[in-house]
Amino acid sequence: MLDDITLNKKKYMMMAGISICFLLLLGIGYLFMTRTAEHNDQVVSKFDNDIRVKQSTQIEQVYFYTKCKDELVQEIIPNSECIGIDYKSFQQVYPQWNIELFTEDKIRMSLQVNDYCEWHKNNNFIGIHEGRIAIFSGMPDNKPLLREQTMISVDQLHPQALEEIKNGLVFSSKEEMLQFLEGIQSK
User: Which helix (H) or strand (E) holds 121?
Assistant: First the structure.
């Protein structure tokens, strides 16, 4: 019986110790998170007060196209509207942009564009996806993106047309591509 009481005391002490450790870790985590947030606020306020865009400031614009996952990076020079302004004013000039870096030497900003990049918009081809004719953006040999899968089965195709489509049939215009698809459907 004495052994049972000693065992229960040990369990109770162990549970109390684990609870104390958990509370300590929770408190340390809270302190760390609030100090990190305060530090971020200090960095932003430093942007507001001290740093100004100069004529020599390099501006890097990163466009991220959500539909094709491509990124376009452009480096531009500040226009006359931007020279001499601080972080807050710069944000007002570029309200949709996420400003990731703001120093006198370099500004890096990014923008998510809910569209295809120009390259994927302007390059389309017909290929095969899951046994059916499909329309892709891009070029056949360079990470194409499936845009639309038709109901046309490859079993319905003439062997010569099938061979061309297997390699990716590139079109210079959407109209030309649609005419080709209509021609295949009518056969």
Answer: helix 118-122
pLDDT digits (tens, 9 = 90+) for 24-59: 677 677 766 666 544 444 444 445 558 999 999 999
Nearest to 154 by CA among 137, 166, 170, 169: 166
Reported in sequence order, the residue ranges of 88-184 that DSSP labels E, i.e. its strands, are 98-102, 106-113, 124-129, 132-139, 142-153, 169-171
Query: Which sequence spans correspond to the domains of the chain?
Result: 1-50, 58-113, 123-186
Q: Which class would CATH give 123-186?
A: alpha beta
Q: Tokens standing for 178?
A: 């649609």
Q: Of 177, 180, 185, nearest to 153 (Cα)?
A: 185
User: Kind and range of the H or E element at 75?
Assistant: strand 71-76
7 pLDDT higher than 70: no
Does the domain at residues 58-113 carry the CATH identifier 3.10.20.420? yes
Over the stretch 94-153, which tens digit does the pLDDT of each residue have?
A: 999 999 999 999 999 999 999 888 877 778 889 999 999 999 887 787 778 898 899 989
Q: What is the pTM of this model?
A: 0.55
Q: How many helices (H) and strands (E) does the chain have?
A: 5, 8
The C-alpha atoms of residue 38 and residue 122 are separated, in whole angstroms, by 46
Q: Which H or E run includes 58? A: strand 58-65
